[in-house]
Specification:
Layout: H1 5-28, E1 32-37, E2 47-51, E3 56-63, E4 67-74, E5 80-88, E6 97-105, E7 109-112, H2 122-149, H3 155-180, H4 194-234, H5 242-262, H6 269-304, E8 313-317, H7 329-349, E9 354-358, H8 369-379, H9 396-410, E10 417-422, H10 426-436, E11 441-446, H11 452-467, H12 469-492
Parallel strand pairs: 8-9, 8-10, 10-11
Antiparallel strand pairs: 1-4, 2-5, 3-4, 5-6, 6-7
Length: about 500
Amino acid sequence: MMKKKPFIFFNLFILLSLLFAVVFTCCAAKNYRVEIPNTDALPLSELEITTDSDCVEVAELKEEPERISCLVTPRHMGTDRLEIVFGHTDSSAASDFMSIRFFCGPFHTVFVMDPFPDFSGSGVVIAVLYFDILLTAVFMTVMYIRYLKRAAFSYGMVACGGIALFTVINLLVLMLASAVSGGVFLLNLFQSSFGAVLSGFSSFGSIFSLISTPFMAVFSVAVTVSNLVLIRKEGFRPVNLLGVLLGVAWLIGMAVNHFFDSNSSGSSEHGRIFTSITSAISIVISYFICMLFATVFSAWLASKRRPPFDRDYIVILGCAIRQDGSLTPLLRGRVDAALSFAREQREKTGKSVKFIPSGGQGSDEVISESEAMKRYLLAQGVAEEQILTENRSVNTLQNVQFSKQVIEADTDKPYHTAVATTNYHVFRSYILAQKAGLQNMRGVSAKTKWYFFPNAFLRELAGLVVDQKRLHIFMVLLLMSIFALINALSFLG
């Protein structure tokens, strides 16, 4: 298991940095300097300033060759929306007037709302937000690599990979948006308005959903087809419908998002609400798509990772046998994979292993799965003293738990274990081994039919969401709160 201290320190740092951003905003946004183009139609000597509220005062007028600047400062505590009009004295021409909207916030703060919400010192806050996103991407990537190096395949590893992917793509989208808006990402960092950055972030969900739509469409069809094949060949079980459910859920999500998107046009209150909902739905969907990508990649890596040749025991996970007590092709593949690894280890290091075929007897089975595997091992030339059977288990978790008891009854020394199972099942075996406390476990992968894989990926994604539910609830609430902020700012404007 990965130590929790790095995650605690990371979360504490992010929390403190965001708290600093809030406190800094309250301290720095005490006034706002407005810059007005200095044209012949609007010289300082003839500038007329009017406002529809006494919430602020305008002072410190300065005339420069190309612009006129002034300082807008709140008069009193409270919140109020106002509009300040800078115009030419005794003129009625619309071109001679400039109107800027402001919002007086709490703590004697003032924010400009045109064209995007902004405030004094926003460059520092923007830098903090960018740094937090970059730090999250780097930290989660490093932690994912640490999980991989230790072969600590787990839901925690997948969560790190999913969040790393989510933040990296988000950062790339923000950089792209910054470049499109007319600047180089790092050079115009402090020149962007706070609202423009939030707007760029809100566009991430829509952009990512658009990019990932072809993949998700193909994947949804593939898992649905694989489920139908799986049900036809292996029988009906609720877990075999995960692909169909994903396909239906994805189509419903896209339909709902399209409905809100089609109603989000315009700057009306109705349109802004639907725009905010569309962005929130898109980014939450994007977050879980990143988790799906991380699940698929992690499960694939787990199936490809070979154990070091220092194993003391190989646990062979059982599954259904034939009516005559012989092994099915699926189970025989697991035993053959264990035999192949044991022979390779013996050839390279001279070290022998003990086999632990694991599996009880089902109500429709003539012998236990472990006994059937033992007979096959004996037929392949394995000595009987090298075989320790576990014949009580009825599911995979019990396979691991009871095999651990068999091992600890055989030795009181530290040991290294391998678990032989089908390739799509290796990732789950790592997770269950961690829950059972099986020491130094590594997976040995056996090949199987293609249609098992998509459903296995979805099962692990469901397991990830349940196992790490607090993290995902927090992330969804955080994303929703960001869009609530964006929506609130749009209404203030």
